[in-house]
Amino acid sequence: MTFSPPLVSRSPFPPTFLWIPLSLVFIGVVSWLIYSGIRPSLQFVSYTIIVEVLFFIATSLALIYEFHARLSLVPFTPPKPVGNDTLALATMMVYAIGTYVGIGGSIPIAEETRNPKRNVPLAILITIAVLGITIILSAYAQVISWGGAEHGLLRGQPVPIPCDIHLPA
Q1: 43-74: string of b/e by CB count within 10 Å (b at 16+)?
Q2: Where in the sequence is the domain holding 103, given as residue range(s)?
Q3: Residues with Cβ < 8 Å from 139, sequence gap 6 or more?
Q4: Residue 12 lies in a domain
Q5: Alpha-carbon span 161 to 86, nearest angstrom
Q6: pTM above 0.85, yes or no
Q7: Which residues contact 1 (CB under 8 A, 6 or more apart)?
Q8: In terms of Cα–Cα distance, which of 128, 120, 74 is closest to 96?
Q9: 9 falls within a domain
Q10: 59-80: per-residue pLDDT in tens?
Q11: Residue 38, C-beta contacts closer than 8 angstroms, at least 6 positions apart
Q12: Is residue 93 part of a domain?
């Protein structure tokens, strides 16, 4: 006799098979974008990036508003950021450099733009500025909402991850 989990459970979380239709929808959208050409694909990517950046900025501002009593410049002052640990510094550099990897993707589509000598460098600079502001704002909002390393959810944690979050049963 084999045991198979029920398709419908009383759990507040989505069923375990939900990934299948979501994957099929994702595959369908990507396939349609590839088939439709570069212009609709770029328009779709532009709209989704705008929605993503607005979501990050809105949630960051909501966290900052919610935890306004904790506002300070302490997260921006590095007393001993890695304690002379070369491995930790190298790990941080991977993420710092990897954050901006996709910016060079605008160069191959330069032939699709008007006045590429002016517009491509301008697009790259605007992208770096918007991405930098969004990442810094989001990181700051997370640090003040978690409470920082001295208090709150990060106190005494060897790895600064908010481990004290309880999901509903």
Answers
A1: eeeeeeeeeeeeebbeebeebbeebeebeeee
A2: 18-154
A3: 75
A4: no
A5: 21
A6: no
A7: none
A8: 128
A9: no
A10: 999 999 988 888 888 777 765 6
A11: 109, 112
A12: yes
Q: Residue 150: what residue type?
A: E
The pair of structure tokens assigned to 106 is 């605008």
Task: Tell me the C-alpha distance between 6 and 28, whole Å.
Answer: 28
pLDDT value at position 80?
A: 61
CA distance 35 to 40: 10
Q: Structural domain tally of the chain?
A: 1
Q: In the chain, how long is the greatest CA-to-CA distance?
A: 69
Distance CA 161, CA 153 (A): 8
Residue 8 covered by a domain: no
Q: What's the rounded Cα separation, in Å, for the pair 37 and 25?
A: 19
Distance CA 40, CA 45 (A): 9
- Can you tell me the distance from the alpha carbon of 161 to that of 83, in angstroms, rounded to the nearest whole number? 19
